[in-house]
Automatic annotation (TrEMBL):
Alphabetized NCBIfam families for the sequence: myo_inos_iolD
CDD domains per UniProt: TPP_PYR_POX_like
Every Thiamine pyrophosphate enzyme central domain range: 232-364
Protein name per the record: 3D-(3,5/4)-trihydroxycyclohexane-1,2-dione acylhydrolase (Decyclizing)
EC number, as in UniProt: 3.7.1.22
Protein keywords: Hydrolase, Thiamine pyrophosphate
Amino acid sequence: MNQRERQPEAMTQEPARGTIRLTAAQALVRYLVALRTDANDTLFGGVFAIFGHGNVAGIGEALYRHRDVLPTYRAHNEQAMAHSAIAYAKAHMRRRMMAVTTSIGPGATNLVTAAALAHVNRLPVLLLPGDIFVSRAPDPVLQQVEDFHDGGLSANDTLKPVSRYFDRIVHPAQLLSALPRAIRVLTDAAMCGPVTLALPQDVQAMAYDYPTSFFEPRVVEFHAPAAVAHEIERAAQSLRAAKRPLIVSGGGVLYSGAADALRRFAERHGVPVAETQAGKGALAWDHPLLLGGVGVTGALSANEAAAEADCILAVGTRLQDFTTGSNALFSRARLISINANAFDAIKGNGVEVQADARMALETLGAALAEWRAPLQWTTDAQRRAQGWRDTVARVTNTMPDERLPNEAEVIGAVQRSSARSVHDDIVVCAAGTLPADLEKFWRTSTPGGYHMEYGYSCMGYEIAGGLGAKLARPGREVIVMVGDGSYLMMNSELATSVMLGAKLIVVLLDNRGFACINRLQQACGGAPFNNLIDDCWQGPHGAPHIDFAMHSRSMGALAERVSNLNELEAAMQRARSADRSYLISIDTDPGRPSNEGGCWWEVAVPEVSERDAVRSARATYEAALALRAKVEKGEQR
């Protein structure tokens, strides 16, 4: 499909003639209101706003005028509200989105981390930070960052490297070109990511005679490249020659609506499927050909198949190091990469198919006709898949006696609390050990039931992301699983969820520090240092004992602390029946991870050290590098 804007049939009318006088801010908001995904739904589901110096007078007044059709949501932290907006788009599979507006200084720079997150994850969000006066008359203004070699720079320039499209609106007429460009990027499968329109506060307030046709309601069609015949044929040739093919399903499968196409392709051709963090949920957890997650946080079944595969069909994945085992897991296999983005499709020096995932799978399937993978390979994959499901059942149903539970056991208790046979809760998470165990052990039957931000692995995304997911899917139970470290980094949008009536269930696993990095530190030969609270520098009063339930109640949520898994399951029932956000805190073991699955991940270890443990870890690291080199040369599997 080509990107274009058209009027839906119900809205067809003669183009309005003449002009309308509006401020730049009023014109921007009115343009956003006019955009539709169909005759009924708006493209933008709302605007998160924290008003301040540089946006309260201009865009604030414009948003007030359209508050009934474009809701404005007040948040408590700019980074967090941008995370919520990004999560909203992710939960809508990039088919609806939100905008975010901030003040000109700290509000704008607070967006940088969120913009980077959206950039890495290829997710749309429209950032509308205020900016300094174009006139320079009141120079410098409050919150202005003065650069000593370029007077045209402002705090907003920090957003340039993490924006897919950046524009500073220095005249109201500029919106006539900047806004269509922005929408094209936001709705283009290849370019999709954050867009920043910096809005100088004097320009926001300037009036201009805009053509009325610019604001006519229009339906936005989403652009995605169609498969090219010769690329499909090369991919088909590689697959026909394969004896042990494996599909790696990425986030692009979900965003293109290709879940059914993936299932039909896998079943018709007998090709097993492994999934990335972003791609989890395209196939139901109990599909016979689903091997589970692949890579560092992956399942044993998927990683064994990946190591043996002679052809990898990577669909809609960035092929980051957690998926590829730092390019060691399937480096011997021929790679076919289907991706809407050419930058991603050419990774790994494989066969490139730059195309929308759904269209490419359908076209490739037709080209393969009746070809099927060897029966023994398909049968072995089904056996492995069932073996992994048995492992998941065993690990998640373990009830520790006197020991503190670990993450996998908590996940099992959370899922047992659901009375539904189809697992349609939405779990939200982002960083730490939980992403590894959730990819391995969370069972979901529907696309979107697994909402993981692991492209940027941004601590603090969890609760804000849960809020965005709930706003997008109000009929689903949204369960945020978060560690104490991430909670302490960013928890303010729990208060926003109460204010908006967007109920979340937050399960907080308290291991008293950054346990994931503590284990990585020791695996690299380091001494436990500055990660767990007990290993940190402390003053005379020692570390605080944080009552997370009390803290959550102070923000208006319901909350309780439980002591074991039985109490957790009972608390989950109370949380499910509650009328507002509900936090449950449980202590977990920081030193007892689940050991199932996983593969090597390259983390550089110091080449010299006075410590024996570091020297030993360095020797292990060098041996792994040597093994990868041999595999790449074809000397060893």
